[in-house]
Amino acid sequence: MSDSEDSSIDINEYSIRDYYKLLRPLWAAKNINASYLNNHKLLRTLVDFSLTHSLYLKNLQKRELELGDIIPTKINYVDALVIKTPNNNSLNNTEHAYQYYGCFRNKFVEFCPHLAIAVYLFSRFHIPDEYGSLEFMVSDYKNKLSLEDVKLLKGNNKLSAISYSQQHKSSINALSLSGLNYKDINLNKLLVTQTLDIQEKLVSLDIDHLPHSVMLSLAGFESFTDYNIARNSVEPPQELLEQIFPFINKPNPEESLAMTRIRQLLMMLRRTLCQDMVIIKKKYPSNPVSRNPIFSSELFTNFCNEEYDQNSSDNKVDLQKIIEIQNSKIKNLEEQLGNYYSEQRVIFSNLSDFIERQNEVFQRQSEYMQKIQNSTNGLLVLLSTRNKNMIPLVQQSLSETSEFISSINNTNIKQGLNNSIELLAKLNSNTHSQQQHIVSITNNTQSIINQSIVQPPSERPSSTPFQPPPLTPKQIERQTVLRRRLSRQATTLFEMWDDFKGLEQELKDHEITVTEWLKVHGSSERQFRHTRLKIIKFIEDEAARRNCPVEFVKEKLHTKMRNRVRPWTLDEVQRMLTSGKRIDLDD
């Protein structure tokens, strides 16, 4: 193992399971020799590994990272972290002095870079070292310590970066904890192992042009429509959030723009930390963060119970939806097999009838041939006797033979050809009907699947005679809008409003009615839209009643939702409105 990212001497083939086996002992934090890998070094190593796995950062880039280089943002309503690093390939180009990497929260907590950074920063502010001292104190912030200049991976002190030797030693200890010998492992090759083959580069010279598809793939999802993290569905209580990084609770009007961004970063990370620690504390109770008093408090326990209840309910709904989809597919397959069986019986009947009629034709033809043979034999007998009445008899025999041959040509062979043509027509008709039925069944099944899960359209073979004509760009854009769903990631009132109104405007621009849109998505989307529409109508009606802009009402409702011991979620507001409970925005 070395600092080089280009070592190719390791012939081992690694899988994502190998990476998980490497991380699991670090999260479990059991049987660790504190003199080699204490709590802070343990969590620092998790960040080190995660930055390579999720962002493909090199060792030198990771050592140089400062907190100010981590930019919190939202991409399509999804929490994202953007890492800014110097662009060493463009030293003389001031236009692109930096390059950017981005990552979303991962489907699996152990692989999540957001959580890895959150637990490590939490340890630096909330977990004492072996001497009982915290790295950062509240007094540091009051003394205006520039957190944006603090190195992400700590070295010998809070302002120095981790050295190569420290990084190397921590990695060796982490490998040994997993039962691996560093001499046999190419660590970088192991860390960049993914479930998919990622071809596109993750880096961008512009923060607005990050490769979202690659970021989604690395997070375990195919698209923004598919992106759904169950643990993100429940908001932590404000009182619990304020116990983590408490110095950011009250904004300082004199703070710099960089410090404002640090505040936003820590606010995003502490929300992620609270949500993900529900799983970490249950799976890894020995983890140093799991043992912290904040995550052993009654407040956190109550939040865990609430998230378990919410996720359990969501899982039941998802499971029921999957069962319904599978049952529909099985029913369609049974109908399809029944139709195939009926069609095969018709084909068998047609073939049997054809064979029977052709046998009759061949039988008649055999009889005619026998008569021709008899007539020919009679001619030979007459010619051999040289009787004076031979000529009339020969003429009669030739006339009969001519009639037999004419019957074979005009009647028997024609009948056989007609039978063949009739059979081919029936078979062609059945085949055409069968192919149309297959297309119909396929379309119906795909429609059922699309009601639950929207997937990218697959290319059909160009050789099929039933391929529809290619869509125009305008039709493709209309189909894209038609397949769009309301975002499940829009958790705040303002995000939900923008998402709902944005979709409403797109449907109007493409002349798509709500009824047509709902036919594509089905009952689940109808119910979800209905819940959001309740809140939208309440805001619009309240604005009309007060004769004021809707923005004023939105702000008052948002403030009322947040200024509580446990903030209201959008679902709770909807349930209150559905039950007829009045929401007083002026109290």
Automatic annotation (TrEMBL):
Chain positions covered by the region annotation Disordered: 454-473
This protein's UniProt keywords: Coiled coil
Pfam families linked: NDC10_II (PF16787)
Compositional bias ranges of the Polar residues kind: 454-465
MF terms in GO: DNA binding
Family annotation (InterPro entries): Ndc10_dom2_sf (IPR038279), NDC10_II (IPR031872)
Claim: Nucleotidyltransferase is one of the keywords in the record: no
Domain of life: Eukaryota
Segments crossing the lipid bilayer: none
Residues covered by the Ndc10 domain: 30-300
Coiled coil start-end: 316-343
Protein name, as recorded: Ndc10 domain-containing protein
Organism: Scheffersomyces stipitis (strain ATCC 58785 / CBS 6054 / NBRC 10063 / NRRL Y-11545) (Yeast)
